Amino acid sequence: MIRIRSMVLVAALGGLPSVVMTAQTVAVLPGIPSVNVEERFQNAPYSAQRRFTSVDTLVDGKINRSESGGSEARDSQGRTYSVGERHWTYQGALKSEMLYRIHDPVANTDTSWDSSSKEVKVIHWPQNVSNDEASSAQCQVCLDAMTSDLEASTEKLGTKTIEGVAAEGTRRSYTIPAKQGANDHPIVVVHETWYCTQLKIVILETNDDPRSGTTRNELIGIVRGEPDVKKYNPPSDYVIHELQMP
To answer: How many CA atoms lie within 13 A of 96 on its CB side?
Structure first.
C-alpha cells in the first residue's frame, strides 16, 4: 500500500471527497454509550452484525421502509472495527457504498475508508488526547441543548435478554408543543436504548418520531470472544494518507 504522511490541523478533518446527495441517506453506525473509554473497551471482546431499519409514512399515505446492514467487532485490547452500508438517492438513482472504520486506542489512531474511493485516512492523535471522550461530551451537550426547553422524561425499563445477552433499558421522551414547526398538535418523540454492561455497548436503539418515522438500530448474531478482524483490513491497492494531529 502506498503511504502518504502529512501534518494537518483539526480544521482539515473533513471526510474523504463526498457526493452531493438528495432524498434520504441511510447509514449503519455502531451504537456507542457515553461512558469512560477504559471501561468501555478493555476486556470485552465480541463480534456481531448490525442492522438499521427505517420506516416512515409518505405524504400520500404509502409506507416507506429501508434497511441497511453492517458488522462490528472489538478485541480485548479495546480496538474497535466497524463496517456499515450507506444508501442514498442521486438524480433519481439509488446509490450505495460501504463505510469502514477502525478505532485503535492502543496506537491512538482512527482509520477510515469507503468502497467508492481507493483512499484510506489514518489519523494519529496525541497520546494525551481522547477523541472518543471529546465526541461523547459534545454529543451530550448537543442533546441537552436540543431538549432543554421541551417537556422531557426518563424511564428505566429494567433488564431483559436480547440476542443472548442481558441489557438494561432506558426510555427518554420529550414533547414538542403544537405550532412549534409545522405540527398542529403536540408531538411526542420517544427514544429507547438497551445497554449491555458486560459488553459495554448498546445492543438495541429505537427512535419514534411522528415527523420522520421510526428507526431501529440493533446488533444481531452476537459472538463473545476475540474476533477475526482480517476482513476489516483495507485493500492492498488503496493509498494511505497518514495525518498527524498537532
So the answer is: 13
Spatial neighbors of 180 by CB under 8 A, at least 6 apart, are none
What pLDDT is attached to residue 145?
A: 53
- Name, in order, each residue with C-beta under 8 angstroms of 105's C-beta and a sequence gap of 6 or more: 37, 41, 77, 78, 79, 130, 132
Q: Do 74 and 81 contact (CB within 8 A), yes or no?
A: yes
Nearest-angstrom CA–CA distance, 103 and 200: 16
Q: State yes or no: pLDDT of 81 exceeds 80.
A: yes
pTM for this prediction: 0.71
Average pLDDT, the chain: 78
Q: Residues 155, 170: contact at Cβ < 8 Å?
A: yes
Give the span between the Cα atoms of 242 and 237, in whole angstroms: 16
Residue 181, exposed/middle/buried by CB under 10 A (0-12, 13-18, 19+)?
Answer: exposed
pLDDT tens for 68-77 read 899 999 999 9
Half-sphere exposure of 75 (CA within 13 A, CB side): 13
For the chain, give percent helix, strand, coil, nearest 5. Answer: 10, 55, 35
Is the distance from CB of 77 to CB of 227 less than 8 angstroms?
no
Please say if the pLDDT value at position 30 is more than 50. no
Each domain of the chain, given as residue ranges in start order, spans 3-244
